[in-house]
Design goal:
The structure is a single chain. The chain is of the alpha/beta class. It is built from twelve helices and 22 strands. An eight-stranded parallel barrel has the order 5-6-7-8-9-11-12-13, surrounded by four helices. A six-stranded mixed beta sheet has the order 17-20-14-4-21-22. It has a four-stranded mixed beta sheet with strand order 15-16-18-19. Bound molecules: pyridoxal-5'-phosphate. The site of pyridoxal-5'-phosphate (PLP) has 17 residues, from helix 10.
Length: about 425
């Protein structure tokens, strides 16, 4: 199986953790997001342990909660001792409601509306990760009004190309995030932040992209950032307490994706950062990492019901399901691949080639093409693996399709985490 928390039982059913996926689908209906809480906890622990072992004191793991933001998951990562990266007042509100201490929250985003800046300052958010000079001015102004000294990081664009998909590469000079070094704007940004009375410049932030399986891009990024830090130190005397290297560690979606150890990658990154700092004669800052996908991605599956099989001779075999881009837009957005199987026939040979079609009125609403499945019939339970990240959090009500329920499983027990949307929910905001 793609992940060690997945197996097949004697009935030939897919098992996640210790729970039979077919029984869960019969109990809760489909489409159904299932998240293995134990796996989320294991992922959190592998980060926290490695950060303690290999990185400078004060280093931390922030869960990038855009990957999967709901109360049950935030509580789990909070219990595991992670801080969190939020990118909107909505994510901030959710984190505060589940009891996250405000000082453990980092407010990201390239386009923070001013009312959200005010909300975050009022809520006592720990740090802003400031994207631009304009945003810096606004934070300084609102912090003055509130009579606080707001802690901030500056988001710097290191100009690193990770060769990942264009839509998830975020570190190149002309991307919409951050302020670039090569244009000279990052230097001006630091000088400006240091001159402000109502902000305290605590650290620098960078993020190179997503689905990265090696330490190389992080080390390349760290080199650029330490060059910049060395230069700023020489010119202004400023040394950041923290360097935030962002998120982006990869998750296995298909067998050809490598199996990686997050601990090993963190060790390599830690060793290289210490070496570079020693070479430059600057103290090693505490490092922050912001994993999202790699905390929840492999913990999730989505179970659908096959609503029909349409074979077009000499062309395509379509297997249609009762969900699609409304609960998982990743294939439509990025052509992202996922492994699929029939949860009720998991022991059988997967030699039926097909396109898995969603239910929306869009030809592009597909979950995958050239997928190898067990021979499907209407009523089978098609299951997509590795759907813990960027599925529920990117779901929509296009075509007025209600969002699925999400359950968590732990030690063979299942719990509703998010209830299925009702037709009433779909109308809840309409003025009738
Ligand atoms: C600033 C920042 N941090 C962390 C993440 C999380 O990335 P991932 O889920 O790939 O770990 C992202 C993803 O877009 C991001 O933009």
């Amino acid at each position: 199986m793609l992940h060690s928390n997945l197996s097949v039982n004697s009935a030939g059913h897919l098992v996640i953790g210790k729970s039979d996926a077919v029984e869960l689908a019969l109990k809760y209906g489909t489409p159904l997001y299932v998240v293995d809480e134990e796996r989320v906890r294991e992922n959190c622990r592998s980060y926290v342990d490695a950060v303690k072992r290999y990185l400078a004191p004060g280093s931390e793991v922030l869960y990038a909660d855009k990957a999967l933001c709901c109360a049950a998951i935030l509580k789990t990562v909070m219990q595991e001792g992670l801080s969190a990266d939020v990118v909107s007042a909505g994510e901030l509100y959710t984190a505060l409601r589940v009891g996250f201490p405000a000082e453990k929250l980092y407010f990201h985003g390239n386009s923070k509306p001013e009312n959200e800046i005010v909300y975050a300052i009022d809520a006592g958010v720990g740090h802003f990760v400031v994207d631009s000079a304009e945003e810096l001015e606004a934070i300084d102004r609102f912090a003055a009004r509130k009579k606080v000294r707001q802690k901030i990081f500056l988001r710097i664009t290191p100009d690193i190309d990770t060769h990942t998909h264009k839509k998830i590469a975020t570190g190149t000079v002309d991307c919409k995030f951050g302020t670039p070094i090569v244009t000279g704007q990052a230097e001006e940004f630091v000088r400006r932040a240091l001159s402000k009375k109502n902000v305290e410049l605590d650290g620098l932030h960078c993020h190179v992209g997503s689905q990265i399986f090696t330490a190389g891009p992080y080390i390349d990024c760290a080199k650029v950032m330490f060059d910049f830090i060395g230069e700023m130190y020489a010119k202004t005397g400023f040394l950041p307490k923290y360097l935030d290297l962002g998120g982006g560690f990869g998750v296995r979606y298909v067998e050809s994706d490598p199996v990686i150890s997050y601990g090993d990658l963190i060790r390599k990154i830690g060793e290289e950062c210490s070496r570079i700092c020693m070479e430059k004669g600057i103290p090693v800052p505490a490092l922050l990492l912001e994993p999202g996908r790699s905390i929840v991605g492999d913990a999730g599956i989505t179970v659908y019901t096959v609503t029909g099989v349409k074979e077009i001779p000499h062309h395509t075999n379509y297997v249609a399901v009762d969900g699609g881009m409304t609960d998982n837009p990743r294939y439509t957005l990025y052509g992202a691949e996922h492994t699929m199987l029939l949860a009720n026939k998991a022991k059988l040979q997967a030699d039926y080639r097909c396109t898995v079609a969603g239910r929306c009125c869009e030809s592009g609403d597909l979950l995958g093409e050239n997928i190898a499945l067990q021979k499907p019939v209407k009523g089978d339970m098609l299951t997509v693996l590795s759907t813990g990240a960027y599925n529920y959090s990117m779901a929509s009500n296009y075509n007025r399709v209600p969002r699925p329920a999400m359950i968590t499983v732990k030690n063979g027990e299942d719990r509703l985490a998010v209830r299925r949307e009702s037709y009433e929910d779909l109308l809840a905001l309409d003025i009738l």
